[in-house]
Structures are given as structure tokens and as C-alpha cells.
Amino acid sequence: MLHQNFKDFLASTRNTILCERLQGTVFFAGLSKEQYPETDISEVDIVRAPKKWSFRGYNPACVGSNPLPGAKQCELRLNPWRLFDAILEFVPAGYRSDTIDFEEHVYGTLATADFSSLLISKSAALLSWVSVMSREMSPTSEPKTIKKLATAVYPSFAMLAGMQLDVFTPLKNGPMSAEQIADAIGVKPSKLKPLLYALVAAELLTVEGNSFSNTDEANLFLVRDTPSYVGDHVHLNPFLNLWIWRATLKTAESIRTGIPQEEYDESEKSEEELESIFRGTRPIAVRAGRELVARYNFSSYRTLLDVGGGSGGLAVAIIEACPHIQATVVDLPRVTPVTRHLVNEAGAADRVNVMTADVVRGPLIGSFDVAVLRAFIQVLWPNDARNALKNVSAVINPGGAIYILGHILDNSRISPLEEVGHNLASVNAYERVPADYTEQEHKDWLTEAGFEQIERTTLPNGDGVMTAKKPM
Fold this sequence. Notes:
Number of strands: 17
Distance between the termini: 43 Å
Low-confidence stretches: 1-139
Number of helices: 15
Largest sheet: 7 strands, mixed
CATH architecture of the largest domain: 3-Layer(aba) Sandwich
Mean pLDDT: 76
Strand content: 15-25%
CATH superfamily of the largest domain: Vaccinia Virus protein VP39
Shape: globular
CATH class of the largest domain: Alpha Beta
């Protein structure tokens, strides 16, 4: 298996040590041609560029303390980038081999890292261990990772400020001076200039003389009102990121006191505050609804239940894309007045009903072909999540479906990285921890609620998705 440190090391050093000072050394332990005549370890047929790679025979006797019979060890000198490409292409998934202890040899001056053994398959008949041995050229006690993490926040903050101020949209038609950009967005040039240069350093803008321009990436993804704009992405929405990042700054205090320092409780919000929140997050819900029906076949559904729909954005997006569907948004008494207002504002009141109910305590009324729960299960305690899914299951027609959208952790709880970060931020928002549930927890609760055919995917907007069917 390929050790992730190998990839990380190559990526982090590509413009410094590797290009100037490195030459990788690899040891190949194979079986002799006499013992396996169908193989030929003198040729590099595990890669596709044999003329550019050369083997040199070395020690036909033992390899380490547990040698293979007739093993030969050969030295292969090559550019580590070519080695990395070859390994990525030829490591067979799921292969394992008996462990071979290699005697450590180091040739030349290397600056790689402490890597795990890498497994390569030469053919179906020959499995070989390739061990990358290494030694740093100039050992250093510098805290490189710590320094990198300490400064990594500033480009992120610059991007957030740029998106909040909409710096990128005025630049869609070409270069502008700081004064012109400031005039377009209504701010003072003296305050804007440090941000513009920070965005250049973050590789979102370029500067030539006194003129600033979007990079190609910024022009494609950060210009508002374009199909590819990512401001409605669940992990890139500036409204959400402001709250999440601000909350994350209080993590130590939340842990120290045991009290979430940025607790989010809709029951304590005024109607005006809720409307402001829903208007900020509504673009995310709308995009999620559009992407959901683009990914999955909703043609057989006639009635939809949007559980904890808040702004109603998801339901409105779905009925606009699927004219045959009638939707119902269900939420708590404090929320539904705002929901009705926003649904009416969208001109969708004739096809989106708003129902007041407590999904956790239940029971619910009506019957539906499909239910969508976005950012709902994730804010409940485990027992409440179980009860909610059972109550939703009770109103889904046989053969119907359920879609749970939102933050979902891998079972290891250390990936995906953006979900790990959201889980950390949630320490500051919710009494319960962990705030984000794993794939297996979702599967267990769905099974308890009587669903089957449970699967997990991810939408392009970043939402995790758990899908399941109710038996006929």
C-alpha cells in the first residue's frame, strides 16, 4: 500500500529539495529467473519507460535476515517523481505479501522521509516489495508543520473577506486599480489595498503595476451570478464560514468550560433573526435541491416531505425542477412563520405546503413518496435522531425513499477533512459531542427505522448523502 507520507513529502518539496538535490534509490527484491523462468528481473517491465530506467545487479545472495530463495537485490536510480508516478499506476489494490526484512542500505545523498514499504506487482506470478530507503541531507529542528499551520489561516481569511465584499465580480471583465475596485464595491481604497495584496499572495488575484485581475480559478468560481459560482457550496458559503470560523476560535474555551461558547439554538432566536439566518443559508439549500434531483431519479415521486426545511429553499428548488411533485415543508412552530413568508416570496405557495410539527416527538400526518432531511439529523441527539427517523418512516409510502443530506463523517472520524473541521467547530455550537455522525451511525438508525438498500454518496455542493428505500 502506498504510504500517504510519500505523496505529501513529494508535494511539499517539489520546488525546493527535490528539483535540485535529490536522487532516489530503490531496492528491488525479486525471485531468480531460474526459479521463475516466466519472469525476468533484469528488465523493468513493471513500468512503461524501460529505456529511461536502469538496473544494476547487486548481491545475489541474502537480502536481510529472512531472504527469499534465490533472491537478488538490484539498485535503481531515478527521479523520485517518475518513481511516484510508476507506483501510483502499478500498486494493485488489496494485495498483501509475506513480510521481508530488508537490510538497510543508503546510496548517495537522499532527502526523502521515513516511508513505509511500497507494494508493486510485476505480474500475476511475481509480487515484489520495493522499499524506499532514505536519509535527510541536512537534518533540521525547524517546526515546519507548525509554522505552516500558523500562517495557513491568513489566505483563508483573505478569501472570506473577498467573497463577503464581492471583490471578484467587478474584476470579471478585466484588470482594475485598487481605487476602481473600491469604488465598485463601496469601500475606501486605503483599507482595501492590504486585502487585494493578500489575495494576490493567496493566488486568487494577480497584480501588474497598479492593476489587479482575477486568476482563472477566481474568475470561474468566485464571480457571483454565474453557473459555476461556489458561494452556495456548503463548505464555501461566506455566511456559514464566518460563523463556523468565528466559533472555532473559541474551541479551547468551550473545552475548558464544558460549555459551547457559540451555542446555536433556534428556540432563542427572534423571527427577524431566523429570517436573516435563513436568507443567508437559503442559497445552499436551493443548490442542494437542484443537485439532488440532478443526481437521483425523482420521476416516480409525486409527494415530497422536506423535514426541518427552514427556508423552504430545498423544496422550492425541487418542485421547480420536477413540476409533477407537490412538496410539504415540516418544521417547529417558531420556524414555520418564516418558512411560509419565504415560500410565498418565492411564488411557490401553491405547490409547497408548510406544516407545523415536532418530527422528534411525532407522530406526523400525511403520506409521502420521498422524504429529504437536510442539516436535520446532524443537530439532534442520538436518541432524538432515532425517533425522528422512525416518525418519518411511518409516513413514507411502501417503496418510497429517504435522503439524508449534510455533514457525514467516515467511520474513522478523521476524514473527510472538511467534515473533521466542521466537527471541531461544532464543539462550540452544541452541547452534545461529537456533533457530526458517522456513516455507520446513519446506517444503524436507518435500519432500525425499517429502511434498506442504504448507500452513501456526496453531492457536488459538498453535502454528504445517505439514501435508503422503504420496503414494499
